[in-house]
Specification:
With 207 residues, the protein is mainly α. The two termini are 24 Å apart. The chain is 76% helix and 0% strand. The chain is globular. Helix 3 crosses helix 7, helix 7 packs antiparallel against helix 8 and helix 7 crosses helix 9. It has one domain: Ferritin. Bound molecules: fe (ii) ion (FE2) (2 copies). One fe (ii) ion binds next to helix 4, helix 5 and helix 8.
Length: 207
Amino acid sequence: MTTTDFQYSDHTKSILNLQLPTDPRWVNLAEVSIEEILTDHAFCEQKAATTCISIIQWYSEKEEIVNALAPIVTEEWGHFRLVLNEIHKRGLSLGKRRKDVYVNQLFDFIQKGGGEEGRMLDRLLSMALIEARSCERFKRLSEGLEDEYLRNFYRRFMESEAGHYTLFLELAELYIPKEKVRKRLQQWLDHEASIMKNLELRGDRIH
Ligand SMILES: [Fe+2]
Ligand SMILES: [Fe+2]
């Protein structure tokens, strides 16, 4: 996807459907703890790759899911390596993995009962929401950081995660009726907003 596509596509509008925009102060907090942000970001990419692998394992008989997510694993792992490289360039090391409060709270919303279809829908929608919020945060960084190099660095991630958001929604709609997907998506958007509302605003976290 090109930058121009991104600016005018439906993806952007959908991402703006996130019910609660990030507090504008976040980018200033992130700017002064960019080393922490890089470590946190690296682990977000690692988690994206490993969760896609898990989805492939859970739904190994669903060909479109396997075929669509196999390259995403590579892409997310490529993101991890890009961030790791950036960390090394600064003479730093990856550091310790942190507890991801945002993602853990999102995953708690995945229904335990209600059958396989509902669980698959929730797994795909939880991934879509993580991609959307990450995209929104990367957008903030790509627009609000002082450092031009880092602004460009984050623009690249923003564009990529926007595409992933759409992909997870499309996969859901491939297997589950559209009205059902849209209805549940609205519940996920509300839930995500309530998590964001109660989450401490931290400059050392992507979410
Ligand atoms: Fe990524
Ligand atoms: Fe992604």
